[in-house]
Amino acid sequence: MNGIVLFDGECNFCDQSVQFIIKRDPQGYFSFASLQSEVGQDLLKKYEIPADTDSFVLIEDGRAYTKSSAGLRVCKHLKGAWKALRLFAIVPKFVRDAAYEIFAKNRYKWFGKKDSCMLPSKDIRKRFL
User: Which residue, 36, 74, 78, 88, is most buried by CB atoms nearer than 10 A?
Assistant: First the structure.
């Protein structure tokens, strides 16, 4: 089974992150759903993640990963040198997640917020759940 990325559909940075992943995932390993969508909310429930979470979430191999762990696992599947970022997995999770939390708390201030989720182009729409 392929990975499913749940993202904040209102966050400009998150939208750009999804575009970044799509560009470096030519095999289409990842599917996407916004946290705000019905599919996203159903997956959060299924994997017992609080419905009000605003973390990046990766569902892979029957498990849900959040925050820095999700990001590092995504890098493992990307084309190019991005795979090397997996080396940061040696940094203790509490340190990685603390840095993630600082970034996450400021992402709207730094990158802005949308009123609605992006509409994917026709050629990548099939990757959105």
Answer: 74
